[in-house]
């Protein structure tokens, strides 16, 4: 198995640069994970694919306003700080101060030990938030930094919402639409640097129709990191060091999984982040899922992995050579997935985060 096995030619013109006019009006490619059979549909048609007793599990995390555009203190030069994850073992957190792992630009001018501070002004031109670069991030961070965030506002949360921007994937350029369309309609706690995009296609009306049909709806939370956009650089994917993320699987979701199994229903993960959460909570000793509360997972799902919890997957189309291509190939097969992607490209599906969806059943 080589990383190149999960490569494909991605036509730039098929990378969706804006969401569908209607969330559930995008296209849906339905694939049988065992046979590879395909058929084309519209996302709201997923109602016809689901049946009473099925359980949909979604990642209810919300995207942080994690992209901060400011100026370096002392020189006034433009600088960007991207929040990745809060670090809790460095300094005590207060309402107005916290430590974060971040990415910075320009990296050469924002080095630890240089006293580098970036100030971020709100719409009135007042500095509402500052970031001091205090250390390098750990091994595997690819140039990340540790920064101390401070604010004169009532709270960091208030300051972030005054100066921050919702981060979009690097392949989405010049989007000037409603940033709320990069959030799911059921998103709750802000804890992610990227959206769990498979869930973007659900509307409140579609969710209610599914529930009325007898499809159960439960949640997990996985704090999505920016590494989700990075491709695998190792020739041998088994040598790739996948990022660690925090995830939560509530007890009610664990109970719902057991009840779905008893009724003969399927456990359907909405998105690869829900998939990783559900598979990470599997306890091999007890032979069943266990509730988790902000547990760490670095589960890397490659072909050959045995799925213990999930029976079907709602997902978007993914970047070539990514861990997500490997995950969906593990859930079906590399040949079936590559055939599905060839079909999607031939049929001019819209791809990646703002694009169309797949239902792998």
From TrEMBL:
<keyword id="KW-0413">Isomerase</keyword>
<dbReference type="GO" id="GO:0005737">
    <property type="term" value="C:cytoplasm"/>
</dbReference>
<keyword id="KW-0963">Cytoplasm</keyword>
<keyword id="KW-0949">S-adenosyl-L-methionine</keyword>
<comment type="similarity">
    <text>Belongs to the QueA family.</text>
</comment>
<protein>
    <recommendedName>
        <fullName>S-adenosylmethionine:tRNA ribosyltransferase-isomerase</fullName>
        <ecNumber>2.4.99.17</ecNumber>
    </recommendedName>
</protein>
<keyword id="KW-0808">Transferase</keyword>
<dbReference type="InterPro" id="IPR042119">
    <property type="entry name" value="QueA_dom2"/>
</dbReference>
<dbReference type="InterPro" id="IPR003699">
    <property type="entry name" value="QueA"/>
</dbReference>
<keyword id="KW-0328">Glycosyltransferase</keyword>
<dbReference type="GO" id="GO:0008616">
    <property type="term" value="P:tRNA queuosine(34) biosynthetic process"/>
</dbReference>
<keyword id="KW-0671">Queuosine biosynthesis</keyword>
<comment type="function">
    <text>Transfers and isomerizes the ribose moiety from AdoMet to the 7-aminomethyl group of 7-deazaguanine (preQ1-tRNA) to give epoxyqueuosine (oQ-tRNA).</text>
</comment>
<comment type="pathway">
    <text>tRNA modification; tRNA-queuosine biosynthesis.</text>
</comment>
<dbReference type="InterPro" id="IPR036100">
    <property type="entry name" value="QueA_sf"/>
</dbReference>
<dbReference type="InterPro" id="IPR042118">
    <property type="entry name" value="QueA_dom1"/>
</dbReference>
<comment type="subunit">
    <text>Monomer.</text>
</comment>
<dbReference type="GO" id="GO:0051075">
    <property type="term" value="F:S-adenosylmethionine:tRNA ribosyltransferase-isomerase activity"/>
</dbReference>
<dbReference type="Pfam" id="PF02547">
    <property type="entry name" value="Queuosine_synth"/>
</dbReference>
């Amino acid at each position: 198995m080589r990383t190149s096995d999960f490569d494909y030619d991605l036509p730039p013109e098929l990378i969706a640069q804006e969401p569908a006019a209607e969330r559930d009006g995008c296209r849906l490619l339905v694939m049988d994970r065992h046979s590879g059979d395909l058929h084309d549909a519209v996302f709201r048609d997923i109602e016809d694919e689901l049946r009473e007793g099925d359980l949909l599990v979604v990642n209810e995390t919300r995207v942080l306003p994690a992209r901060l555009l400011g100026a370096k203190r002392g020189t006034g030069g433009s600088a960007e700080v991207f929040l990745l994850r809060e670090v809790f073992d460095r300094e005590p957190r207060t309402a107005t101060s916290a430590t974060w792992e971040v990415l910075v630009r320009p990296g050469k001018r924002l080095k630890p030990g240089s006293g580098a501070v970036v100030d971020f002004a709100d719409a009135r031109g007042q500095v509402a938030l500052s970031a001091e670069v205090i250390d390098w991030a750990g091994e595997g961070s690819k140039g990340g930094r540790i920064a101390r965030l401070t604010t004169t506002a009532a709270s960091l949360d208030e300051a972030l919402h005054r100066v921050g921007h919702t981060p979009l994937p690097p392949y989405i350029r010049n989007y000037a639409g409603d940033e709320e369309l990069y959030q799911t309609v059921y998103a709750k706690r802000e804890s992610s640097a990227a959206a769990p995009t498979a869930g973007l296609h659900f509307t409140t009306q579609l969710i209610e129709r599914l529930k009325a049909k007898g499809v159960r709806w439960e949640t997990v939370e996985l704090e999505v990191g920016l590494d989700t956009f990075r491709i695998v650089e190792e020739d041998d994917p088994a040598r790739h060091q996948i990022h660690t993320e925090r995830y939560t699987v509530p007890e009610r979701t664990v109970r719902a999984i057991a009840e779905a199994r008893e009724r003969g229903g399927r456990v359907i993960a909405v998105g690869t982040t829900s998939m990783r959460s559900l598979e990470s909570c599997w306890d091999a000793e007890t032979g069943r899922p266990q509730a988790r509360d902000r547990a760490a997972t670095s589960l890397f799902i490659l072909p050959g992995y045995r799925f213990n919890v999930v029976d079907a997957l709602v997902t978007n189309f993914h970047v070539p050579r990514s861990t997500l291509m490997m995950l969906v190939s593990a859930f079906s097969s590399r040949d079936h997935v590559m055939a599905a992607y060839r079909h999607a490209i031939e049929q001019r599906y819209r791809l990646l985060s703002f694009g169309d969806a797949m239902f792998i059943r």
